[in-house]
Amino acid sequence: MSHVNLSPLPDLHPVWVPELISRYDSAGPRYTSYPTAVDFRTLEGNDILQHAAASIRAEAPLSLYFHIPFCEHVCYYCACNKVITRQHQRVRPYLDKLYQEIAFYAERFAGGRVVEQLHFGGGTPTFLSDTELQEVMAVIRRHFTLRDDDLADYSIEIDPRTVTGETLKVLRDLGFNRLSFGIQDTNPAVQTAVNRVQPIEQVAELLQQARQLGFRSINFDLIYGLPLQTPDSFAETLETVIALSPDRLSVFNYAHLPDRFRPQRHIRTEDLPTPQMKLSILQHCIERLDQAGYQYIGMDHFAKPDDELAMAQREGKLHRNFQGYTTRGDCELLAMGASSISQVGDTYFQNMHDVGQWSDALDNQGNAICKGIQLSYDDRVRRALITQLICHFQLDTATFGATWQINFDEYFAKELNALSGHINDGLISISAGSLTILPPGRLLIRSICMLFDSYRQAQIEQRFSRII
Questions:
Q1: By the 8 A CB rule, do 338 and 67 touch?
Q2: Where do the Radical SAM core domain residues begin and end (predicted)?
Q3: Is residue 17 scored above 50 in pLDDT?
């Protein structure tokens, strides 16, 4: 997908307007893809792979994702696809199947293309032993062309409770140059309530070791809305985190869905902060991180101004994919492991969630794909628009229309008309040749993107009957 270069926004700071937050705050997609994963259809794996092969961009570099589902301990808030176990011998059969999948996709899609981005997610990828991590990377190197100059973006999620300085050295030697620490909250009472106790001294020591080893970007994950959190307690967590000075921060909203995610049944509803408290926490978080010098990237993400993510946004080169915000928008994504989602050409496809079913499918049919979608021309147009807005908060409509060979105002006439309320409320500005998300609208970007989402529109029309 091509991006549209625009001059840097004069003001990247979001503005919190309580009445607008209340008016437009509703459930909606996070747009790590368009169409979103909920819009994928059940498809036969070999059919969708043929579609992918036909639309492959042979000149595009690769992004690789590997899902490692294992965790030693359950975190009660977690909604990830995971396997809770202390039996490390369960790793071997999973890795054997992962190697089988690596070979399968490399044969079809590698083509000597360079891997510019690589990510291990989970679960807890560092559930693997140092030897197993070395083995996995050796298999990947046999099948794909990895860079050895440390200029690529190779990252891994780590659990500070189980990672040692020696493991960090192994990861650095293997070519990883970015780390994501699962922090969530530094308050001991909150940590106990979610079954994730990790002293901040342990985190600080690992952080220092990672910097000494030359990891060039370190992310901290935080969650607001956890049990026993208050605006004051989270403000203290934030000060502790700011003092440690990570390069990036992801601040996620906890969604309490115990009927869908069994571990959340350990969390008492009465211990959760009220919706108003959650809004207060988020407002303080956004304003405090701005004061501390972090650039608001979008939604839950913040980065130091000299971080590649922040620079890419200022230069009009930021992108978004299934791994979130990224600087590697020109890559095609091959994702391996249970539940992982790939994007090849104009095709998305997802693996089975259940590890056993994923493993059996690899044996029986060579792939574990359960659903996906082949993008239409309209899908690609809307994907380009939503990606541009969610990454850069503005769009040159004339250039966009010329790029996609459409009359922008005619093609999106229905959507532009639906934006009248957002315009009147000062969330968005539309003038000749440009569409700009104003500072109060940046916190509500998902609400704006939903108006350009034809799948959401169709669902609304299907849910309600016509009034006449």
A1: yes
A2: 56-282
A3: yes
What region does 165 belong to: left with phi over 0, alpha with psi -120 to 50, or beta? alpha
Residue spans per domain, the chain: 36-334, 377-463
- Which SS3 state, helix, strand or coil, does residue 199 take? coil
- SS3 call for 314: helix
- Cα 66–Cα 67–Cα 73 angle in degrees, nearest 5: 140
Greatest C-alpha distance within the chain: 69
- Rounded average pLDDT over 282-296: 94
Token output for 386? 């939503």
Mean pLDDT of the chain: 91
Cis peptide before 441 (omega within 30 of 0): no
Q: What is the Cβ-side half-sphere exposure of residue 255, based on CA atoms within 13 angstroms? A: 10
- What would the pLDDT profile of 118-154 be if each residue is shown by its tens digit? 999 999 999 999 999 999 999 999 999 999 999 999 9
Taking CA atoms, 113 is separated from 60, 143, 166, 397, in Å, by: 7, 11, 32, 33
Amino acid at 153: D
Interhelix angle 130-143/91-105, rounded to 10 degrees, is 10
Tell me the per-residue pLDDT of 228-273, one tens digit each, with 9 for 90 and over.
Answer: 999 999 999 999 999 999 999 999 999 899 998 999 999 999 999 9
pTM, entire model: 0.91
Q: Which fold has domain 377-463?
A: Arc Repressor Mutant, subunit A (1.10.10)
| pLDDT score recorded for residue 382 | 97
CA 388 to chain centre: 16
pLDDT at 12: 62
Q: Which residues pair with 65 in a beta bridge?
A: 119, 335
Please state the CATH superfamily assignment of the domain spanning residues 36-334 in this structure. Aldolase class I (3.20.20.70)
Cis peptide before 160 (omega within 30 of 0): no
- The model's pLDDT over 452-464, given as tens digits with 9 standing for 90+, comes to 999 986 654 444 3
**Spacing of C-alpha 455 from chain mean position:** 21
